[in-house]
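[AMINO ACID CHAIN]
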Amino acid sequence: MSNHRLALAGMVVVCLVPAATAQPIATDRLSAVMIATDRGDALPVFAEKLVVDIDGQHARADLMQTFSNGLSQQIEGHYQLQPGQGSHVDGFAYWNGEQKIVGEVFEKGTAERVYTEVTTRRRDPAILEQTGEGLYGFKVFPIAPGEHKRVEIAWSKWLERRDHSVEFRAPISSRNAEIIVTLAGPIKNLTSATHVLGVEKLDTGVRVRATGPAKDGEIELRWDVDEPAWTPDAYVQPPAAANTEGWFVVALAAPQLPATAAMPKDVTIVIDRSGSMAEDQKMTFAKRAAAKLIDMLDPRDRVNVIAFSDEVDPLFAAPHPVDAAARGQAKAFVDRLLAGGGTDLALALQTAVHSQAKPEAGRPRIVVFLTDGESDAPKAVAVDTSDLRLFTLGVGTDVNKALLEKLSAEKRGRFVYVERATEIEGDVARLGSAIAHPLLVDVSVDVEGAVASRMYPRTLPDLFAEDELRVAGRYKGTGSMTFTIRGKLEGKPVVYKRVIDTAHPHAWTAQLWAQARVDHLLEQLELSPTNQTELHDEVIDLALAYNFVTPYTAFLAVPATELDASSAQTLAQGRARKRDAIAQQSADGHVGGEVIAINGKAPAIDPSSTSQGVTISDDYTRNVPAGRTFEAGLSRDTAKPNRVADTDGDDESAATGEQVHRHGCAGCASTGGDGVMSLILIGLVALKLRRRSAR
């Protein structure tokens, strides 16, 4: 059994940062466009097709677009994709005439070296990279006059659920795009604000063909999940072999509550007024956001406002009851603020904590933090924020994303991105509505029937009205599994259970877990000055085996005929790195999953490969399908320590099949394993060392 424990906490941080990963409270714009690099013009779309498979709340989209070069000269095209916050690109291809050039995931440096070597000879490879938070791009050269350049790109995403409602959005460019969406699961009330829907009922759900004029360059679908409130959803992907680990995802959505259910709370609004806030009207929007939040406070609440730069200026010594006078004073204080000075986030945190009133039962203590600046991360993380709730909301380009995510995660809150400063008021309104209704606190997740490990997030947040909890993890075991979510609802213990038969697999759970693990590692890379090499290498290993783009990996698509001796050698070394990464995980006993192609049948894996138990044919390596490839598990050997030491105090009993995560720990690998498996592992490791010594 696995268990995450958390205590009631209460601090909200609202920060200003750039759009990126999906969060429960956020808006973002979508786009998929090819730009003529020298001219800056968008190329017209000649043909477009979007195929989407939605399994429960997991969506996988495959977008095929053909762009037309109507110019009289040869051009370079720059393709830009913004598929929505929380999306992960995991497939890529383009066409040279009738030849499809399929991308492979490589370590980013390898992909860039091959791309540079080939393009210097005026050839036409393509490299797809993550160019920003939630933004991907690649360049294609040349595109001849009158040529129709076809590209294909695929991404996956978990769709956040609010109460019973789920939304799917994807970018499209043409009003005549062919759109096919298959939805599996208990759905009802399917609608679209952008398209006319033709719905075909299936045994497992529905298939939708969307027609009619698109609105704002996207398709939007909404539907309700047809199940009672407080019903957990769980999905598993069994391990590929005995004594290896599988994957699981469990989620719980909170229902909507009436406004009368709001709890009285203490709210301290902390506003960054450092010099950088004067840029791009960030100070203006931050002040408007703070005023909006003050207006939303209930008369039963208490309020305080603290301004900070490299100094701190509080309005009150402690939060005051929200009567007309206090509300007016708070708004006037905010309105007078001017930007200037440095940024000391740790000092602001300390002041916010010390200014709180004494804890009262049933009265959350909340701090709302607005900042766009960098700060001393270790110093800020070290601040004891006591039992405050912490949320983060962001717009801008200078914020320390990893720091704010860590602070909010450890204090059971949320880190929310706002793509444009002009949208901050709406997001603050949604945030204010959510924090007024804390529902499930002291949350834990137990897994019975299997030994669970490496569960993310490592610390479970409180669950608010129309909010959702999602946990991804690894497990070892067979047969049915019972997922139990415990917490306190209105001060009373509650238990929600879901029993899952592992005979019904969901292959995407493997990649979703890997993405959660990578997000955790990237956060550690931002905050930890130690273990940088090991953290960096594990991010690459995960992305190579699970086939998705990260800041350290990229898709490279290059015709074999365009390679000279040097670039061919670089590519071969990159493929060897990929094989070794997967082989190492196979030696640890955790590679599994399946190969899935977007179009047609997935290629077979060559069993004759000598890559330490991982079998990859040369043909497959050269032509990885433009979609899911290895959805492979990458936990470390059960007899070896993790690459990243977990010191959270996990206790695990192999005898009882139970793992207890104390203080929110979810990162410790499982232990145990029989003698046969140990001998196999020893043999595989010895083989690997022998292969390396022969190089």
Notes: The first strand starts at residue 31 and ends at 36. The first helix runs from residue 108 to 119.
